[in-house]
Write a structure and sequence with these properties.
Helix content is 28%, strand content 15%. With 172 residues, the chain is an alpha+beta fold. It has 2 domains: 76 residues, Beta-grasp domain (Ubiquitin-like (UB roll)), CATH 3.10.20; 78 residues, [2Fe-2S]-binding domain (DNA polymerase, domain 1). A 5-stranded mixed sheet has the order 2-1-5-3-4, sandwiched between helices. The radius of gyration is 16 Å and the shape is globular. Pathway: Alkaloid degradation; nicotine degradation. Keywords: 2Fe-2S, Iron, Iron-sulfur, Metal-binding, Oxidoreductase. GO terms for molecular function: 2 iron, 2 sulfur cluster binding; metal ion binding; oxidoreductase activity, acting on the aldehyde or oxo group of donors.
């Protein structure tokens, strides 16, 4: 380890970065303070609200609880990085079409969580409400609500959020 920190390499929203980080630095602080990537929001900074949700190697994580050094060699995708070649991701389009936001503060985390949820469905991974646990999960409101329960919306835009995720169902 150097005096500046540990050297890591990671790709954030398609851009390669090699940098020194303090081993205690969270992924959220690295994104916002070192890389100037502000899509992931700092809400509670305790892993309780989900505003900081991003995808690391396709899986959703709470960036405020994830140490940046654990992402060495990984692919980090924020809500801003989901749009490919100027085209919104289907989940992003569905959020717009279903008014799935009000103030918008939680929206990037909600969108990343919804993309991660879609991948979980595609993989056939059950949740607490999947019955029986060996069944392929269905795109029900209860299944979506359970999987999105770690992402809070102070404005109460949940009906639009669930509708958007159901409408975009099957689009990881």
């Amino acid at each position: 380890m150097t005096t500046e920190g540990r050297r890591i390499a990671l790709r954030v929203d398609g851009t390669e970065h090699g940098l020194a980080v303090d081993p205690r630095r969270t992924l959220l602080d690295l994104l916002r303070e070192q890389l100037g990537v502000f899509s992931a929001k700092k809400g509670c900074d305790h892993g309780q609200c989900g505003s900081c949700t991003v995808l690391v190697d396709g899986r959703r994580v709470l960036a405020c609880l994830t140490l940046a050094v654990t992402c060495d060699g990984g692919e980090v995708t924020t809500a801003a990085g989901l749009a490919a070649e100027g085209e919104l991701h289907p989940i992003q389009r569905a959020f717009l079409e279903h008014d799935a936001f009000q103030c918008g503060y939680c929206t990037p985390g909600q969108i990343c969580s919804a993309v991660g949820l879609s991948a979980e469905f595609a993989d056939g991974r059950p949740s607490h409400v999947t019955a029986p646990v060996t069944a392929t999960p269905d795109w029900t409101d209860a299944e979506i609500a359970e999987r999105m329960s770690g992402n809070l919306c102070r404005c109460g835009a949940y009906p639009g959020i669930v509708a958007a995720i159901r409408a975009a169902g099957g689009t990881p």
